[in-house]
Structures are given as structure tokens and as C-alpha cells.
Amino acid sequence: MISGKFAITTHILTLLTKFPNDFLSSEFIAGSINLNPVLVRKEIANLKSHRLVESKEGKNGGTKLTVDPSSITLKAIFEMTFETINLGYAKNTPNPECPVGKKINQNLSNLYTDINRKISLQLEDITLEDFSNQF
Questions:
Q1: Residue 90, CA distances (Å) to 41, 58, 84, 87, 95 in order
Q2: What is the C-alpha to C-alpha distance for residues 83 and 60, in angstroms, rounded to an integer?
Q3: Radius of gyration, alpha carbons of the chain
Q4: Which of 63, 83, 108, 123 is deepest in the core (most CB within 10 A)?
Q5: Helix (H, G, I), strand (E, B) or coil at 34
Q6: pLDDT tens digit string along 5-33?
Q7: Cβ atoms within 10 Å, residue 60
Q8: Is 77 within 8 Å of 5 (Cβ atoms)?
Q9: Residues 6+ apart with CB under 8 A from 116
Q10: Which residues, in sequence order, are CB contacts of 108 under 8 Å at separation 6+?
Q11: Residue 53 phi/psi, 5° resolution?
Q12: Burial of 108 by CB count in 10 Å (0-12 exposed, 13-18 middle, 19+ buried)?
């Protein structure tokens, strides 16, 4: 199902791009997103696991971008936050005797595959630097 992870992660990375020489605190980032710092730290942990950021603790601690923003695409960010978009299926198993029910999940699956292909194509040409330059 869709969540705000892509938006949160993109916001974090855009902030880090705008302040390339600074370690930004999770509180500062959370203030920009208007989100609980715990949720920000969770997304930062994901970014650290992908080696896009480094963090340091302490009074002057925070998080800093470790990659060139021109080297990462929004497609890569999307794939870090979701493997695919899935808009979901009905909670109940559709009636296999119904002309719609017997094919609805397969048709939705095909639609979701097409949506993901189109999203990937659109995002693969936009770098974090390109996106950050809009601000």
C-alpha cells in the first residue's frame, strides 16, 4: 500500500542536498517535514543502510549526505522506499463464478505492473540534484 515514505525520504535528501556541509539534526529535519523525529530517524536508518548518508552523535551531531546528489535518481529513492506501488486488493476473496470477480485481481495486478513501469521511467531521468534545484 502507498505510504508517505517516498515523500519523507525525498524531503530528507533534499534538505541534506541544500545543506551539504552541515550535519542536520533529526529535530531540524522533522521540523521541516512537520513530523515526529522518531519517524525521521527511521527513514535516516534506511538511508544509512543504502550508504547515502552518514550520521554522528553528540552536540553537533546529525546527518549528512555522503553521495553526489547528481548521482542518485528519484527512481533509486523510490526503490529504496517501495519495491513497487500496490494500491491493494479487496479484503474478501472475489467470487470466482462472477465474470468480474474471477478476473479482478489479475487485472488489477496488470494495472499495478503498468503503473510501476511508468513511474520508473519518469523517475529515472530526475536526479536528486535536479529535484533540489527547484527550491
A1: 33, 48, 18, 10, 11
A2: 34
A3: 19
A4: 63
A5: coil
A6: 889 999 999 999 999 999 999 999 999 99
A7: 9
A8: no
A9: 84, 85
A10: 87, 89
A11: -135, 160
A12: middle
